[in-house]
Design goal:
The protein is built from seven helices and 25 strands. By secondary structure, it is of the alpha+beta class.
């Protein structure tokens, strides 16, 4: 992950000293572009959960602002719920016959979106409305390298439990995407300011108002970190902002952590929680605040790992299904890359990579890419195939000796449109359970 320097200094202003906390605008623009450029190998960028007991939002301004693609589920209001809401929610998160592990995951368990965003609402009721398999798939999504952002109820959902009246509530339901608990602010239908302190990674992407304070963020029964001593948490937990709310007669939350993140290791995604509601704002600092959290979440996506090394004349069959629990040999999903390595010997006149589909399941479009020394994406590859279908060969004449990367890309995608409950799939839905293929390399 590329690191960006944050310039910190002091600037005299009307006789007072005010910290200059942010990187330069050029560095911030570069940081944003760097994150946005890494969206290859996913079906889309963001999935928005507006399911049962959550706000059924149908747009997310920050995705338009950042130029990201979005799918979403928006259930009916609580008093209008029908069995359809539960069925659709289960199909999306837990899976169905058509898509056995749900929308968030590829057949091999890799994240199908870069990030899931969970709306505000009633966290406990939403989690109760999901099956155990649905909750577990969100955990698998983050564990496999996908990232998470939740605001208000979505922040509760990501926690290990909510503390109140001397006990921890809903610990059996909450997802535990970060190793800590939250407390409810008991502040309803109000607004707070957010202080972005000088060590916050959000400053990589934007500067915020005077002294980096985001003003007037809507707040309605949100939460904060129960223990704001960050030194007590394991490595990977970070604070992103703190509440500025000095009306102690109402609540005592001034200075408590209002947004925080956790990334367990390089192989997982990053989970970000925010106790308030910046998600619906279409301009200004609050939009930048939401966008910065999305960027930092996606900056925490795990880098893809090769499926394995291809040996000369050794046929590798990628035909396993999700249920086989063999991700190194599992079928490929829509918009996904499978990466492989191959060691090319010196003095080789030609490398030939052969790709073949399976009879009855070869009416999909797969593409082969190759590049020496780094992952072979469509925009980086030095060699690629152009033919339609599954069956093809990639021929590299006089390849340089060393480690080459070969990639298989599934160009066949489902069609998606906005319907009554959000995104609906049609067209090549048979791709959702994956496309089987075999791959082999030989040298001449």
């Amino acid at each position: 992950m590329k690191k960006f320097l944050v310039a910190v200094g002091l600037l005299a202003f009307i006789g007072a000293l005010a910290p200059v906390n942010a990187a330069t605008p050029n560095n911030q623009a570069q940081a944003r572009a760097e994150v946005l450029s890494r969206g290859r190998g996913y079906y889309k960028d963001v999935f928005m959960d507006g399911g049962i007991a959550l706000s059924s939002r149908k747009n997310l301004p920050a995705t338009d602002y950042l130029g990201l693609t979005l799918d979403f589920f928006a259930s009916a209001k609580s008093d209008e719920l029908s069995p359809t809401d539960t069925l659709l929610q289960n199909n999306i998160f837990a899976g169905s016959k058509e898509d056995t592990n749900g929308w968030l995951l590829y057949p091999d368990g890799a994240p199908r979106y870069r990030m899931i965003y969970v709306n505000g609402g009633k966290a406990g009721k939403h989690l109760q409305s999901m099956s155990a398999a649905g909750r577990d798939n969100i955990r698998k999504f983050v564990a496999a390298g996908g990232s998470y952002l939740g605001t208000c109820a979505g922040a509760y959902v990501a926690s290990s439990g909510a503390m109140g009246k001397g006990e921890i509530k809903n610990a059996n339901l909450y997802l535990g995407l970060w190793p800590g608990y939250v407390r409810g602010t008991k502040l309803t239908k109000s607004r707070t300011d957010m202080r972005i302190e000088s060590d916050s990674p959000l400053l990589r992407y934007y500067s915020f108002g005077r002294e980096n304070i985001v003003a007037e963020v809507y707040h309605n029964s949100g939460c904060y970190v129960a223990d704001h001593d960050m030194t007590k948490f394991p490595k990977g937990v970070e604070h992103l902002s703190r509440y500025v709310f000095e009306d102690t007669e109402r609540v005592s939350i001034d200075g408590t952590i209002s947004a925080w993140s956790y990334k367990a290791n390089e192989g997982t995604g990053r989970a970000i929680s925010c106790g308030s509601h910046p998600e619906g704002v279409k301009d200004g600092d609050r939009l930048n605040y939401m966008s910065a959290m999305m960027l930092y979440a996606m900056d925490g996506n795990a880098a893809p790992q090769p499926k394995g090394e291809l040996k000369a004349n050794d046929l590798r069959e990628m035909n396993k299904r999700t249920e086989d629990n063999a991700p190194e040999y599992t079928r490929i999903g829509d918009g996904q890359y499978h990466h492989f390595t191959v060691n090319v010997p010196s003095g080789c006149d030609k490398m030939v990579v052969s790709l073949e589909g399976y009879e009855g399941e070869n009416n999909f479009d797969l593409v082969l890419f190759g590049k020496r020394g780094e992952l072979a994406y469509s925009d980086k590859a030095s060699h690629k195939t152009k033919e339609k279908g599954c069956n093809k060969q990639l021929v590299v004449k006089a390849p340089s000796a060393g480690v080459w990367y070969l990639s298989v890309y599934c160009a066949t995608m489902v069609d998606s449109v906005e319907g009554e409950y959000g995104t609906e799939y049609s067209g090549r839905t048979d791709v959702l359970n994956g496309v089987p293929y075999s791959i082999m390399v030989n040298f001449e």
